[in-house]
Design a protein that fits this description.
The protein has 301 residues and is of the alpha+beta class. It has a domain of 167 residues: Immunoglobulin-like, CATH 2.60.40. The strands form 3 sheets. It has a 5-stranded mixed β-sheet with strand order 3-2-1-5-8, with no helix packed on it. Helix 2 runs antiparallel to helix 3. The two termini are 51 Å apart. About 4% of the residues have low confidence. The protein binds copper (II) ion (CU). The site of copper (II) ion has 8 residues, from loops.
């Protein structure tokens, strides 16, 4: 009996913690979108139709697995209570029950068939890029991203994580970059992704996209952002020393603001790809060393 009491106590503590986390998450979940928030519970808020679909598929699965788990738990409790050695001293000798065997084969098949429909739908929507309004190309490098806009002029630029000294208070640490990927709202954006030397992964959680950046292979995904704002992601494939320090920041703006940005971008001599020798960015080196030094400094304080 002591064991049961202890188990009950543990269950109460876990329950209380979960409720606490839920409440804390509820308070802050809407404080910022496009990035993770402390005590977040669940996904980041969706900013594209694909992410909305992912979220609703996830919620649907949660209902299904909760019902299955509850059903199995009830069966277990029934077995423990009704068929233990004390309550049921002479066990039944039945080994087969055709009806039951058919049921426990057919019901899981039906459940899987129900899951397959939204699952394949989602997969199809993710893989099939609709006719794109603009194309951007993201090249993963050690350790930053280079973006180019083949439809909008001959320019490309590097996007590096902001160093602590350059970061404004409202910009998130380890996520904000110097040059954001700028895209127009409500447009189909085709993203071509490639790796320069090792495999990286281009990931933006609020958009529901994640695709590997593989050297020598042009991968493709797409998104249609339906809210203006800045959305953050991180390289999601272990790619070396500064893997954690090559974030992705996408700024979604109105079409007019996007066109103005493209005009300005085309006039930047340092972003030109023709006739200008592009030099490698200098700030990449030793990002990790700088972070460690920051941490040591604040620890010393
Ligand atoms: Cu990477």
């Amino acid at each position: 009996m002591l064991v049961f009491k202890r188990l009950a106590a543990v269950a109460v503590v876990i329950g209380a913690l979960a409720i606490g986390a839920l409440m804390a998450g509820g308070e802050t979940a809407f404080a910022a979108f496009g990035q993770a928030v402390p005590w977040q519970f669940g996904f980041q808020d969706a900013a594209t139709p694909i992410m909305e679909e992912i979220t609703s598929f996830h919620d649907f699965l949660l209902y299904v697995i909760t019902a299955i788990s509850a059903f199995v738990l009830i069966l277990l409790v029934v077995v423990i209570v009704r068929f233990n050695a004390r309550a049921n001293p002479t066990p039944s000798r039945v080994t087969h029950n055709t009806t039951l065997e058919v049921i426990w084969t057919v019901v899981p098949i039906v459940i899987l068939a129900l899951i397959v429909i939204p699952s394949f739908n989602l997969l199809f929507h993710q893989i099939n890029t609709p006719p794109a309004d603009i194309t951007v190309k993201a090249t993963g490098k050690q350790w930053y991203w280079t973006y180019s806009y083949p439809d909008n002029g001959k320019f490309e630029f590097d996007s590096l994580m902001l160093q602590e000294k350059d970061r404004k208070p409202e910009q998130p640490r380890l996520l904000a970059v110097d040059n954001e990927l700028v895209v127009p709202i409500n447009k189909i954006v085709r993203v071509q992704v490639i790796g320069a030397e090792v495999i990286h992964s281009f990931t933006v959680p609020s958009f529901g996209i994640r695709i590997d950046a593989v050297p020598g292979r042009l991968n493709e995904t797409w998104f249609k952002a339906t809210r203006e704002g800045v959305y953050y992601g991180q390289c999601s494939e272990l790619c070396g020393k500064d893997h954690a320090f090559m974030p992705i920041a996408v700024r979604v703006v109105s079409e007019q603001a996007f066109n103005e940005w493209v005009d300005a971008a085309n006039k930047r001599p340092d972003w030109k790809t023709t006739g200008v020798e592009r030099t490698a960015p200098t700030a990449v080196a030793n990002v990790a060393d700088a972070i460690v030094a920051d941490a040591n400094q604040s620890a010393a304080r």
